[in-house]
Amino acid sequence: MSTTTQGSTLNQDEITLNTTTNTTITVTEQEFLVIGDNTDCRRNEAFDLPKSKKFKSSTTIISNGSESIIMSSNGNGTNPVETMEHTNGAMNCNGNSENNNSRTTQQSTTSNQMAANLQHQTSLKTPEIDEGLYSRQLYVMGKEAMHQLASAHVLISGMRGLGVEIAKNIILGGVKSVIIHDCGKVDYADLSSQYYFSEADIGQNRAEVANKKLSELNSYVNVSFSSAVIDETFLQENKVNVFVLTDASLKDEVTIGNHCHTHGIKYIVANTKGLFGQIFCDFGQNFEVIDTNGENPLTQIVTEISHDEAGVVFMSTDTRHGFEDGSYVTFHGVKGMTEVNEKEFKIAVPSPFTFTIGDTRNFGAYQGGGTVTEVKKPETVQFKSFSESLKDPEMLICDFAKMSMPANLHLAFQVLAQFEEQYNAVPKPWDDSDAEKFYELVEKLNKDNREQPLTDELNKHWIKLFAKTCTGDLCPMQAVLGGIAAQEAMKAVTGKFMPIRQFFYFDAIECLPENVFQSSNESIPVPKLPTKKSRYYSQEIVFGEDFQENLGKAIYFVVGSGAIGCEMLKNFAMMGIGCGNGGHIYVTDMDSIEKSNLNRQFLFRSWDIGKMKSKVASEAVKVMNPNMHIRAYVDGVLPETEHIYDDHFFERLDGVVNALDNVKARQYVDRRCVYYQKPLVDSGTLGTKASVQVVVPFLTESYSSTNDPPDPSVPMCTLRNFPNLIEHTIEWARDNFAGHFTIPAQQAEEFIRQPKEFAERTAKNHSEYDKNETIDNVKRILGADRPKNFSDCIKWSRTLFEQQFFNTIAQLLYNFPRDHVTSKGERFWSGNKRCPHVLKFDVKNTTHLDFIVAASNLLAHMYQIPQSRDRQAISEEVGKIHIPEFQPKAGVTIHENDEQLRADNERQTHMRKNGQGVTESEAEQLLGRLPKQNDIAGIKVQPHEFEKDDDSNFHMDYIAATANLRAENYEIQTADRSKIKRIAGNIIPAIATTTAMVTGLVCLEVYKFIQKHKNIESYRNAFVNLALPFFGFSEPVPPKRQKYLDKDFTLWDRFEVKGDMTLEELIEHFKHEHKLAPNMISAGMSVIYSPHFMRQTSKVQDMKRKISELFETVTKTKIPAHVRSLTLDMLCEDLEGNDVEDVPYIKYTFR
């Protein structure tokens, strides 16, 4: 948008700031003016300078709200503080210069001190990245980006709610240093969103108070605070890479922006005003983005490359290859046409299953094998300065239902500064007169100094809502904007992911009452505004005191207190949910705190490791808001815990928020919410991606109404015999670990503990094949050949190496030689089948020895034998072990494909007993094949439960070595330990920025729940990808409607029956009340009533029995005391005898 707005325009030699009062402030390269009146930052009479006063030495003094910042460009080198004769702490933030000097010296980190500290740190070698702490973030950012973060210095000015949110996320992210800056003092208005402030801190410096808590978040980050001046020397000495400015005046944003743009400092502006937010990014000219989308490079298996002018590359036809026209690829492991290996090719894509690389006629002929991998190319992005962007903004759309909102807000944020300048005050909350004046200024700015208006869709209603609520502060809004802004700061440092270009505006006006934000009338209801300062003052400005009371009375259930759960509880504490009379928050989590949690789950500290998450999180948020009524559970929400989370528990809830990390648990909670007709917000993250789904009774579909397609599974034959990707060998290695160190030991342990019961279960529930395998496992683990010392463990490991990486492969090649041809005359080893080769053990090969060391120690631990980490001693010992020469076996069956494997499995299934009873003689016969109790007396085994995050337990050592050795067998490119750990451990990449942002979105929906919004248009589902960046908001999907007789129903509807009736009474109830005649009533898999299959005598008796009694009879279970209702299903006819296909279920409340 190219306009001539009343904002700032940048020329090479001069910056001019125009305001609505026609005041023009000119800043040249030679002279800088005092900008603004610095009311809150006056020091003494000498500082009260007339506005025409000019300072030499190219110095700018700016005021960040209540903060003062000095910037200097090239001049005569004179210190601006000395020039102004303020040599004794005069540029601090309070009125008394002597007090300021004392305070700064004793409590605040001066620029010289911080510079000295940072210079000392810089002289040291850059520390290694703590992979135990940053493991989940490493999978988002990568090691190179993490090293760049660990060298970055970030300055954040403004420590109210938004500033602290940004600081928290950046500190958790692991930069080298963060300086937090604020000259203002804590006030009641801060307490609704600044979670590190309390009433006891009122009157103290914001930065100083926030520093105490922020410093605890990450011991690797040097966090310091300043309430002193910030000048160019300060920025240079502290090597500031990124300047994040929050809650500043427009004048300051312009001046700082121009300085940062000129001096190569990455610059981010972030603001929230009530339900409206703004982010601006300027990363300079020629900013290089090294990863534009955050996706892992695509890799596909090559099956053929044509030897012609086009050079057509063929891949597996099972799936689309996913490559885009014009992208670049590189090949690895191609045989015959070796010229393509490790070279880049620009491709053309004629079909979803092929692409072309150009003329291959001068290359060798393709003979087989190979993978092709996408090469990510950097992209250079140009940024304009803040002042240029004000005039000609580039804006990112986030809600396509409100396309003109960004332009409206671009004007509104500028006019807010003009309004303050013209009326010497901000617009009063919910004041129609001020809102009208505000709109008039917006109208003027939209037209003035422009060839055409910035927008032709100026929305008066939106603008006036902005004016009426802009003085409020809302924690959820700051969580959203703080998460996004912090991610932008990380992009600025690393070049990882595409930055926002350049303005981003966000609003949540739907959180207001529906008769307010949807109104088109000039007159809208005004909330009851706060009459006194309280910790919720800034929230009450937006919503009113009555709504705050409703928040306090709310009862909510937070399921999970990990990363999302911690952020959610923090937001709830600031919002005041469950903090009033009758209100309550319940939170549950089954997990304890681990080191890897600390990078994202910010309520936890290193001294909390090992404690239960829900309990520690509850204690932490009680500190943030002592009024919060919160109870922590450590029991999962499962069918087995319905006696805890029973009818009484769910019925009194006002809503539920999911903070879970798996689909199965989400679906169960969703079913409970549908049953109890409670609103639910579900959210999740995957790296920089996040989603929010709103579930509202009777308005929307449920979480379980739609399912994501299942992840494609790898054919079992591929894993067992024909891997072609590193993912295959990693999955095989993970199963191999369980097959050697977990399952057999568990079976042996169970046999030692309960030999007879073990024999009965094995005989009853296993096929003959599985039964034999179980017996062999127990005999091997407990037999006479079990290891007695560590030398035995080494020998076992060396034998295992030979078996897995030589003998098995040699047998495979014996069955299918390299030149083997199928019955169709095609090469067997072609396409997706990579011909393997055996590995000869080499003690000097690091990976070979890694395997021996890990396997030996795992076995030793399993038998409680003292372990050894002495690689030299193990190396010497293993070299002495004699291994028999391999002899191929005839008659060994190796399945060529999954069809053969399935047929074999079906044969095994027919042999299974399918849960039928087992005779005592069968159990005794099986027991006779197992070791005698006398022979195993005193033997103790301890199974290995896979734990990916403990680097001392050899679990990942074994899996990494095994996966890479098998990859070598098949000439598959090996992987580093980090990638193997992610795949084997099924680790979900995660980063604090995404988590903070998504929980803010969730809590905005909770505002709507509390107000009981009735229209589906008021709610927002969300999908966000901060890497692109992409923001997609949409209305939830309504529930599917069904019909019986003349009545519509959805999944939210059911027949409500209250009081314990007899079967006869229940049938008559449905005939009379619903015109339906039941012909079958069931509870789960048990049939309570089916007249066609009941004997007459039984039918007569059952008709007089209570439903609860019949339920206990047919299910053969006693109804637990906590259960007050049953779920019954019904097949029925209408009263004319016609089948009625679909009817709702019955909620039968008998207590």
From TrEMBL:
Similarity remark: Belongs to the ubiquitin-activating E1 family.
EC id: 6.2.1.45
Keywords for this protein: ATP-binding, Ligase, Nucleotide-binding, Ubl conjugation pathway
SMART domains: UBA_e1_C
Pfam families documented for this protein: E1_UFD, ThiF, UBA_E1_SCCH
Domain Ubiquitin-activating enzyme E1 C-terminal stretches: 1019-1146
Entry keyword annotation includes Ligase: yes
Subunit and interaction comment: Monomer.
Pathway: Protein modification; protein ubiquitination
GO function terms (MF aspect): ATP binding; SUMO activating enzyme activity; ubiquitin activating enzyme activity
An annotated GO BP: protein sumoylation
Domain of life: Eukaryota
PROSITE patterns, sorted: UBIQUITIN_ACTIVAT_2
SUPFAM superfamilies registered for this protein in UniProt: Activating enzymes of the ubiquitin-like proteins
PANTHER family tied to this protein: UBIQUITIN-ACTIVATING ENZYME E1, UBIQUITIN-ACTIVATING ENZYME E1 C-TERMINAL DOMAIN-CONTAINING PROTEIN
GO cellular component terms, A-Z: cytoplasm; SUMO activating enzyme complex
Name the UniProt record assigns to this protein: E1 ubiquitin-activating enzyme
Catalytic activity: ATP + ubiquitin + [E1 ubiquitin-activating enzyme]-L-cysteine = AMP + diphosphate + S-ubiquitinyl-[E1 ubiquitin-activating enzyme]-L-cysteine
Active site, UniProt feature: C717 (glycyl thioester intermediate)
UniProt region (Disordered), positions on chain: 94-113
Organism of provenance: Adineta steineri
Enzyme class: ligase
